[in-house]
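Entry type: protein chain
Record version: 2
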Amino acid sequence: MKRWFAMAFNNLRKLTVFALSAAMIVSLGACGTSEKSDSTASGDSKSSSNVTDYDVSGVTKYADIAAMLPESVTKDGKLTIGMDTPYAPAEFLAEDGKTPVGFDVDIAKALANMFGLEAVPQTEGTLEALGEDVGVTKEAVAIKKGDSDTAKAVQAALQKLMDDGTYMKILKHWGVETGAIDKAEINPTDLG
């Protein structure tokens, strides 16, 4: 599964928090994991027309963490998130063929809420694989190289979601809780 990729945009402003490029990696967890076998998971209701996102409306702005983001990320009030959508239940398109859904989408929306921003999933553009396929591994968020302030903000926000239980609730909703991790890290060394 290609999970390490880059999103190339013409406008650098769109290369915000999750603009997928090489650089600082914040570990999330659960890529390729499921409580069911692959054959069972493919027929699961989470990949059918009955898809419902986990409701993250209860996640509110956390001012101390939101203040960590640079103005270049927050100035338009939107958190643009690059996504590659053929990977159910992580990120895929709903039956309408337009709406991204999945646990990555729900986590991204929760992060945006924590930052006081509107989540804007970006599924169009050029995606480039970074490196070789590595099989099942921890999932990650790639952030523009050199943007350590954004990396630290995402790390803090993700850890807050882990600590308050939101992260696990999202993973349980999608049936991938066995892949959960308990610590958000920048550039983790244990990727397996």
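Comment: Residues 49 and 95 are 5 Å apart (CA to CA).
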